[in-house]
Inverse folding.
């Protein structure tokens, strides 16, 4: 029963995130194509005229952080047979990072450092978590291999983004490095439902 509850939580959190981002992008002060390609996810969460649904995007960040920590600590932890301490630390770092992004928006010189710290915790911490998870379970089969690929891709894309912050397509790299974690949350939800 625990695994089913955690599974549904992870699935709901990941779907809510993607839907909330799409709706926020649709109402952003730009075409939806330009929003996804030329504007960062964080811009969708800044409370100003450009993003009237900033609260929706920020609620998605917070929900993803909460469902990730709940799903991992409530049930998924039982699937981890080694590296448990690292798993717990990275889960906490990732979940808190995403929540910080939702609570402290970018664009404000006084708080943007905290927002950036939250983003690094979420993206780099989250993708590192996936790599650790993939090598910390009993088996190394389909789910674990997909988890490893997602984590490795996310880390590579994060560093591409990091060294190309001034690139006009930087928001694309940002989204790709975030989506690896969202896809993993969804797949992990399904994995737990099958348990």
């Amino acid at each position: 029963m625990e695994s089913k509850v955690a599974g549904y939580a992870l699935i709901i959190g990941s779907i809510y995130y993607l839907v909330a981002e799409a709706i926020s992008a649709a109402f952003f002060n730009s075409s939806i194509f330009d929003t996804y390609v030329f504007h960062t996810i964080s811009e969708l969460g800044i409370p100003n005229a450009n993003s009237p649904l900033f609260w929706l995007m920020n609620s998605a960040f917070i929900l993803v952080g909460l469902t990730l920590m709940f799903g991992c600590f409530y049930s998924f932890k039982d699937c981890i047979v080694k590296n448990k301490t690292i798993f717990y630390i990275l889960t906490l770092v990732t979940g808190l990072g995403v929540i910080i992004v939702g609570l402290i928006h970018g664009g404000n010189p006084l708080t943007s450092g905290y927002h950036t710290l939250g983003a690094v915790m979420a993206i780099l911490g989250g993708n590192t978590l996936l790599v650790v998870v993939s090598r910390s379970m009993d088996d190394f089969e389909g789910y674990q291999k997909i988890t490893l690929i997602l984590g490795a891709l996310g880390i590579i894309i994060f560093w591409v983004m990091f060294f190309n912050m001034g690139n006009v397509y930087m928001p694309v790299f940002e989204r790709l490095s975030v989506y690896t974690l969202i896809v993993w949350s969804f797949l992990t939800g399904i994995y737990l439902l099958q348990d």
Notes: The chain has one domain: 2-193. The CA atoms of residues 6 and 55 lie 25 Å apart.
